Structures are given as structure tokens and as C-alpha cells.
Amino acid sequence: MKLTQNKEFEDAYDNNDDEVQNVPGSSTQTSRSKKVIRDWKFEKNNFVAPDVTWKIYMGVVKMPASRVYWSNNCRFNRIADVMSRNRFYTISRYFHVEDNAIAKSPNSVGYDKLHKVRPLLNILQSNMHDTPPEERHSLDEQMIAFKGRSHLKQYMRNKPHKWGFKVFTRAGASGIMYDFEIYQGKGTCSDYGLGFSGDIVMALASELPEGKNFKIYFDNWFSSLQLTIALKEKQIFCIGTVRQDRMVKCKLKSENELKKEGRGSFNYQVETNDVALVRWYDRKSINFLSTYTSVEPLGTCKRWCMSNKKFIKVQRPHVVEEYNKFMGGVDLADMVLELYRIDIKSTKWYMRIIYWIIGVSIVNAGLLYRRHMTQRHEKPKIRLLEFQTSIAAALCEAQNTPIRKRG
């Protein structure tokens, strides 16, 4: 079978699935029917692809405001010649994924805070689970940028987008996302008895086949001895940095003792469940928990020496090298998402999540395309920019959208 970028997008976004076509179409039709809108033809089963097409183009060709795409001086014909400005705003105004008439009230049992986007989230998550996983995965937090009003909005000072919706993500070393959970407070995930951070890891790792020696990497917000043991019981191995207060019973050399020995010094112990705890000193001490590797084989890394004004070689345990090499999968996915992120202003919080769903689908499709080409020992023919625009062009062509005459 010939691999194409549009085929990869269909697999990731499932654009040909009637469920995806009908979910937003029927709900938007219901919302629209409550208002009197003249001269607007709306086809329920032909809704998703055209609307997604314009959003994809807007992620590539960015304007200060959406109305500028139809202005005389900055007109973008790919959008303006096919859809009028009023039609675009009308669709955006009444876009719904779930019918509000059947939604549960906030005080009722089983109320879902993400019910406005839940159908699309479930479809995207299901398609992620169907993707053959890599051996090595990282867990980290993402932010869906949003500064409007929402009870789900969070603040994270160390993120590029400090305000928005927090997403816990599992991604492979290649950047392909395999699972996620959007933070919604209590009830975000099932209770595994490991505390909230540990429960998140277990929930995101639950779709990995047991006994296949998959490896997961996470930072000290998630890590604990109890979590590593629980993962190991499922034959899922892990490496994570760990906070000092989560290893109080482990006797290792103090930071001052390692500092006297110099940069690159380390100390380690192995717990009765074969969990290794390694403390390594660079500019400060860092603690690592691991269930599949420890100190050996020892390696080296380059570090800048302020006193000697030159680079020096510093001893580095193998667990540190493994963590640094494979921890960046979620950061890589974030970086690729930001390149051509759909950034259309909206006061509706759920629209930001929908734009994120489209972006994740494109990024996953692009990375899967690269992986498949590599497996066929072929060089990927296009970059993400061409990949994204070709998807938009293919979706537009598939709908046989007529060109609207000006005037």
C-alpha cells in the first residue's frame, strides 16, 4: 500500500469515520436550529472536513485576527474564495460537539466537566491506543493555552503558556502521543492508591501491554518508590527523578559529602525489590529511581568549569544517561505542536481543546508518516509544513468545495 500524508491523517484523526462526521455535525445542527439563520445551507454529514480545513490553514498562515483573512489588503484566497466571512463566524458561533439539551447538570451524579468535548476526546484517545507503541515512553505535563473563563483553567509558572488546561501526556521518544488525561480536579483518573501523581502514571500506563518490557520515564512530581514497584509488578520498567522527602528511609551520602568528592561523584543503593536509588552530584545532587539499570556502565559528559574556564569531562552513571536520552518525548511533541498551532481567539473554552485535538492529530499523523517511511528504508519526502498544508488541500479536494466568485 502506498503511504500518503492524508492516509496517515485519516488514521490519526479517523476523518472517514461516520462517528467523527456526525458528532459535531448533528450537535451543531441542533444548536443552530434554535436560532433563525437565513441563507445558510448546512449539510450535517458534510461538516467536519471543510471546517477542519480552514482551521488547518489558519494554523500555518497566521493573521492578527480571523477577519483579516477576508480583508482587501491581506486576503487569503484559500479560505476567502471558498467560505464567506459570515458563514465562517456562524459555524464557529454554533459549533457544538454534544447537544446541551441532553447534558447532565453540574450537581448530578456522573457529571463530566469535559462533556462538551468528550466525544472527540474519546475518539482521539481510542485511535492513540490503536497505534503500535514504542519501547520507551515519557510522561509529562502539557498546557493548552487559554486565558478566558473556565473552572478547568490552571496556572503553571514554568510553562511557556502559563494559563490554560493542564494535560498529562504519555508520548514515545519519537514525539508520538499515545495517551493523555486532561486535568479536571478530583476524579481525573481512577484511584490506584498511589496518590494523585502516582495514579496518573498508572492510568496512562494502563494501555501498555503487560510483560513486554516497556520503559517509562517521568520527573520527580510523579515518582515514588511505591509507584516504581507497582509498575514493575506489571513488567513495565521505569526511571524517574525523585524528591528527597520521598526517600527518607534510604541512607545515601549527603549532598555536602558528594560535593567534597567533586562533580561526577555518586552513591547508590539497591532496594529489596531490585529498585536502584542513585544520587549523582553535578552542580547539585540529583536522585534517580530505576527498575532496570543503575550505575554501570559508567559514562562521561562534558561540563563547563567556571574556575578553569574550559570544558571538563564529568563521570556520569548509566541511569542518568538513559533518563536524559529518553525523557523528552512530551517536550518534543509540544515543540512540534507549537510550530503551526491553531491559534484562533475564542471565549469558548472547549474550542481551545478542539483546536488542540486537531493539532495533535496532525502531529501524530506526521510523525507516524516519518516512522513508516523509515521502516520502509525511505527518506521522508516532506516536512511538517508541507504535510499540514497537503492535508488541508486533500480535505478540501475530497469535499469538492466550489470556489466562490467575488462580487
Short account of what is shown:
The protein has 13 helices and eleven strands.
If you compute it from the alpha carbons, what radius of gyration comes out, rounded to the nearest whole angstrom?
A: 24 Å
Number of strands: 11
Largest beta-sheet characterization: 9 strands, mixed
Shape: globular
Look at the structure and give the mean pLDDT: 84
**Order of SSEs, N→C?**
HHHHHHEEEEHEHEHEEEEEHHHH
Give the oligomeric state of the chains in this entry, treating copies of one chain as homo and distinct chains as hetero.
single chain
Q: Could you please describe the fold and organization of this structure?
A:
The chain is of the alpha+beta class and 407 residues long. The protein has 2 domains: 5-114 and 340-398, no CATH class; 118-329, no CATH class. Helices cover 38% and strands 17% of the residues. The protein contains 13 helices and 11 strands. It has helices at residues 5-13, 18-33, 48-60, 77-80, 85-94, 118-130, 195-205, 225-233, 255-261, 318-326, 329-339, 349-375, 384-398; strands spanning 136-145, 154-155, 163-172, 177-182, 215-218, 237-241, 266-270, 276-281, 285-290, 299-305, 310-316. The strands form 2 sheets. Strands 1, 2, 3, 4, 5, 6, 7, 8 and 9 form a 9-stranded mixed beta sheet that branches. A hairpin with a 7-residue loop joins β2 and β3. It is globular, with a radius of gyration of 24 Å. The two termini are 45 Å apart. The model is unreliable at 36-46 (pLDDT under 50).
